Amino acid sequence: MPDHLVSSLKRWVASRATLHACDLDDGVASVWLPYALSKKYPAAHRDFSWQFLFASPRLAKDPRTGMLHRHHLAFDTFQVHLRRAVTAAGLLKHVTSHTFRHCFATHLLWAGTDIRSIQQLLGHNDVRTTEIYTHVRNPNEKRVESPLDRLQFRSAESALSRRQRHLATTD
Questions:
Q1: Residue range 32-50, pLDDT digits in tens
Q2: What's the CA gap between 48 and 34, in Å, rounded?
Q3: Which portions of this protein are annotated as coiled-coil regions (predicted)?
Q4: CA dihedral over 119, 123, 128, 131, signed as positive or negative
Q5: For the chain, which residues make up each domain, given as ranges?
Q6: pTM listed for this prediction
């Protein structure tokens, strides 16, 4: 994680801990847990370590118990906000959350990061999946030039006339 994000993340976690404490004071059961976990760890739903860092601002009623819980954000919440931001910015390209992942990997490659390190950061099991990002050309990268491209080749005409001159002097 970039160092400059650590303090912001710590503030976010602290704000979630405060929200959790308020929920507990208000008698909210806190997070919903699957049946097996709630039986195995009956007090876990009240423990902060089980709470969602990106919790819904609304409370929901558990249909099994009737207790109020704070659930995670809806699946498409980020996409909805991203779509609005893209529209507001006037971008014409199709942008999804995966676009950020793709850009992250591409910029790491352009910066010279080892492909295996990128594989690990992206959570790919097979490096071939990560190698998909290598097809994107770095606009700042110099084109690789063959040493043969630097040779001064004589035209076929000049090579032929040289051969003819050589033959004329040997007769």
A1: 778 898 899 988 888 898 8
A2: 16
A3: none
A4: negative
A5: 3-72, 77-135
A6: 0.57
Helix/strand/coil (H/E/C) assignment for every residue in the chain: CCHHHHHHHHHHHHHHHHHHHHHHHCCCCCCCCCHHHHHHCCCHHHCHHHCCCCEEEEEEECCCCCCEEEEECCCCHHHHHHHHHHHHHCCCCCCCHHHHHHHHHHHHHHCCCCHHHHHHHHCCCCHHHHHHHHHCCCCCCCCCCCHHHHCCCCCHHHHHHHHHHHHHHHC
C-alpha dist (Å) from residue 32 to 2, 29, 51, 59, 108: 32, 8, 9, 11, 38
Place of tokens 């997070």: 31
